[in-house]
Amino acid sequence: MTDKELTKKQQTEVTRREQSHERPVFVPAADIWETPEAIVLKMDMPGVGPDDVEVNVQHGTMTVQGRVATARTERVLYAEQRIGDYQSEFALSEDLDPDTITAQMNAGVLTLTVGKAAKVKPRKIAITAG
Question: Is 127 a domain residue?
Fold first, then answer.
C-alpha cells in the first residue's frame, strides 16, 4: 500500500467535543492492509454494536464514528474502562472507490473494506494464438 491510497488523518488519542458536558471521543486502534482488490481496515471499538456505528464519505474523507451504549443506572464507584465514543478519519485517494465500501462489526472489531478503483486493479491479459 502506498501512502497516497489511504491515510489516517492526524488525531490525538483522546479528544473532547466543543461542549464540555459531552463524553470524551477516543481514536480507535486501527490496522490497515492491502489485498490485490482492496484496502482493509480493522478498528477496535469495544462496547460498540453494529447499530451504533456510522461510516460516512464526503470530499475524499471517510469518517468512522461509534457510540458506546451505557445502560448503567447505578452509581459508579470506580471505573477503568473507557466510557465515551470513537471517531477516526481517513483520507481516500483517487485509487480507491468509495462506492464499494463494506462494513462488518464482530465482537467490537469493525472491518471496513474499500475496493480499488478499476484503473488500479491488477488485470490479466488473455493471449490468443495468432
Answer: no
pLDDT value of position 15: 52
Q: Are 53 and 104 in contact (CB under 8 A)?
A: no
pLDDT in tens, 35-82: 999 999 999 999 899 999 999 999 999 999 999 877 667 787 887 876
What's the pLDDT score for residue 13?
Answer: 54
What grid cell was written down for 126? 488473455
Range of the domain at 92: 6-120
Nearest Cα to Cα of residue 5 among 117, 95, 68, 90: 95
SS3 119: helix
128 domain-assigned: no
CATH code where residue 31 lies: 2.60.40.790
Q: Which residues contact 128 (CB under 8 A, 6 or more apart)?
A: none
